Write the structure tokens for this entry.
Amino acid sequence: MYDVILIGGGPAGYLAAERLGRRSKKVLLIEEKYLGGTCLNTGCVPAKTLLNSAKLYVHAREGEKFGVKADPSYEWSTVQRWKNEVVSKMRAGIAGQMKRFGVEVIEGRGEITAPPLGGKPGRVKVTPANGAGEDHQGQAILVCAGSVPAVPPIPGSRENPRVLDSTALLSVETVPKKLAVIGGGVIGVEFAGLFSSFGSDITVIEMMDEIVPFMDQEQSPLLRRAMKNSGGGGTVEFKLGCKVEKINDAAVNYTARDGTQESCAADLVLMAAGRQPVTENWGARTAGIDIRPNGITTDDRMRTNIPGIWAAGDVTGKSLLAHSAYRMAEIAAADILEYLDGTQSVSCIKNVWRDNAVPWAVYGIPEAAGVGLTEQEAAAKGISIVKASLPMRVSGRFAAENTFAGQGAVKVIAAAEDLRMLGIHAVGAYASEFIWGGAALIEQELRVEDVKQMIFPHPTVCELIKDAVFEIH
Ligand SMILES: Cc1cc2nc3c(=O)[nH]c(=O)nc-3n(C[C@H](O)[C@H](O)[C@H](O)COP(=O)(O)OP(=O)(O)OC[C@H]3O[C@@H](n4cnc5c(N)ncnc54)[C@H](O)[C@@H]3O)c2cc1C
């Protein structure tokens, strides 16, 4: 019998397994496809590996402006081989970690057949791809089944070989000359940046009036402008407020904002209309777990409504990001340890899920990142704010490393009442690397005066946060 059985070996599953294994718990991790889940196999890591090749290509093309001459070209098959090499090395690394912490990994589909009840362990059946199922017992069960691409019912999109989801596009054999992207969320925008850097002409068709819904709306136009000409030879055109009606082969027909019928002809179409939590196939109904359309309901310790069953990561629908999955996994693991043997985590703040300081990033050329409230969110909550925004070009580091096309900015938002830091948003190089610092300021509830007394390294792009804070007050 196991102390804990985990269903799903993505970031939430493998991190929780590691944390529990470190504490000498007997852990079983069930994964039906590949260790590492979406993030490692078809998400964050392969996308950023391709993006790294794209950046090298763009930088080489732009080198002349910086005094470095080259005649760059790229070989897509090698780009793909490097991506696959990175993914398989990282996958082996996770398998190694599982071994190191004594976590048993079984390949197959995990399904809860009985929840833990009245001191009795729960049961999970594991069915391998070819073979009969086998039952396992666990005192606690943690569901980390993740999410899959959402498929909107657009006529002509299903079983159309020219309409791909992000997983298929990551491994496409040739770079399309023209790519239509349905959806201007993070994935759509990242792939638009990626493929335009490899020379594709992109049209992003988005139903809302702006791209990336959680971005501060003063910053999204900056990102759109900066993305127009990637430096890799391709272009990006954004069609906002446009509703896709149907797809004919690879031509996307849509109703434009003014009501006119338009069509965008492409070689391939990326369907990037969001992701949905996996709520089927792992025994949710048998276990009696409360499921909403946007995921499994949990409390702030990741407990489901069924005692002895926890959930973490995308499957909860709380925040569909890998680092959120990691954090939820840590909280669930700590709570499971408390459930199993009464150990309490030693931290000065309560070890629960908080979503006021979850950083996000859009990785492209340029990057965008943010944490905390946008100006629009603050207004919706009735919080009156003070704010300041500084263009990236005033940073020495940024000026040294970038051409003056496609500028970004750093924006800080504080509460007017007590000058508490509420939001930090950035478009431009390194944004994804320094945004954690913004999360720390918000998480620690620091005031503008506190940030003024901190020392930021120079020359960096992140010191614009401090400069902007001085502009506030
Ligand atoms: C193209 C793309 C790019 C992304 N880029 C980023 C990024 O840059 N940064 C970021 O933070 N996030 C990014 N994400 C999101 C990130 O990948 C997810 O938030 C993260 O993978 C969620 O982790 P998870 O463990 O909850 O679920 P997943 O990673 O989806 O893992 C769930 C696992 O459970 C397995 N599973 C499901 N059901 C069962 C079952 N019944 N039995 C056994 N196994 C099962 C699945 O096979 C899967 O391996 C990206 C996503 C995509 C698609």
User: Anything to note?
Assistant: The longest helix spans residues 76-100. The chain has 14 helices and 24 strands. The CA atoms of residues 126 and 185 lie 35 Å apart.
